[in-house]
Write a structure and sequence with these properties.
About 35% of the residues lie in helices and about 15% in strands. It has about 300 residues and is an alpha/beta fold.
Length: about 300
């Protein structure tokens, strides 16, 4: 089937952590379909980042039309049909991505690896939702004939971070996360105390986050004069490069921590009751998971010790 499938579509819409953990499956699909034309359908935030991987011949941005936006759905169906794909690997496996299989009717539909009803290569494991993302996707591809799925990797990423002028040693701190999931955040006061302890050791705390994290990172920066606040200044590729040079990283269960861990940085990830590391923990060569039902119960002493800087 590798030789027969000449036009391939890979669907991975987001979020950031899931995209990073899909890099192993993406590499496996490219290796299996060496001579195929492979298109990726993804979210707008990931297009430039994944273009550098050289796994894809084309990258389409999914506009994620609302369920009642029939005009956009019609255009999406037209585009999928026009792609004349021989096989689709749905790595998103959501209700939305599965619906893309069904809107291709009437007429020919490609082979489909995913969970859509009537898919030719279904991930037929009723307990798939109890598996870690990495193992789940590897099993999905195995059921489609791809048995060699490597671990997630960002070895292909390159970026120049000299513009930041950060001198070693430094530790990355990621105090933010989803605005609607505050229970996944270690208290800002705890991050601030950790940053001040790092500064006292001659280690620069480098703050990473998106614009929505500015309150948390700004608070830490205001109480730790030696910190470097890079909130909303870093691309995904630059986070990879920063992670490669850091002596460690501490952060909540949020997207940038997946980049940092996969890049090889010694990583301490903080989990509350709100997410299960057995299903979504960061993957990398040196990852420590600290979990409390309430992150307010996690002490600065324990997190500092987990960094193993002494």
């Amino acid at each position: 089937m590798s030789d027969a499938a000449r036009r391939i579509l890979v669907i991975k819409l987001g979020a950031l952590g899931d995209v990073v953990q899909a890099t192993g499956p993406m590499a496996a699909i490219r290796a299996y379909h060496k001579d195929a034309h492979i298109t990726l359908l993804t979210g707008p935030a990931y297009r430039e980042f994944l273009e550098a991987s050289n796994w894809f011949d084309d990258i389409w941005v999914d506009k994620r039309p609302g369920w009642r936006n029939w005009r956009e759905w019609f255009w999406l169906r037209h585009r999928l049909k026009r792609g004349r794909f021989d096989r689709v690997y749905d790595l998103q496996t959501s209700d939305r991505s599965s619906s893309y299989f069904h809107i291709m009717l009437p007429g020919h539909r490609p082979e489909w690896s995913g969970i859509a009803r009537f898919a030719s290569h279904p991930h037929a494991n009723k307990k798939r939702d109890d598996m870690h993302t990495v193992e789940r996707q590897a099993e999905q591809l195995a059921m489609a004939g791809l048995n060699d799925v490597p671990a997630p990797s960002l070895d292909w990423v390159a970026a120049d971070i000299s513009r930041f002028g950060i001198e070693k040693p430094y530790v990355l701190l990621v105090p933010g996360g989803s605005a609607h999931r505050p229970e996944k955040r270690w208290p800002v006061g705890s991050y601030t105390e950790l940053a001040r302890r790092l500064e006292a050791k001659g280690v620069t705390p480098v703050l990473i986050g998106a614009g929505a994290d500015a309150h948390a990172t700004g608070t830490i920066d205001s109480f730790c004069t030696g910190a470097r606040d890079l909130t909303a200044e870093t691309s995904f590729a630059e986070i990879v490069a920063l992670a490669r040079g850091a002596v460690g990283a501490v952060g909540n269960d949020t997207g940038p921590m997946h980049i940092i861990a996969t890049a090889g940085c010694p990583t301490v990830s903080l989990f509350s009751f709100a997410s299960d590391p057995a299903l979504c923990a960061q993957k990398g060569p040196d990852v420590t998971i600290l979990r409390r039902d309430l992150l307010t119960e996690l002490s600065v002493d324990e997190v500092e010790a987990a960094l193993k800087l002494d």
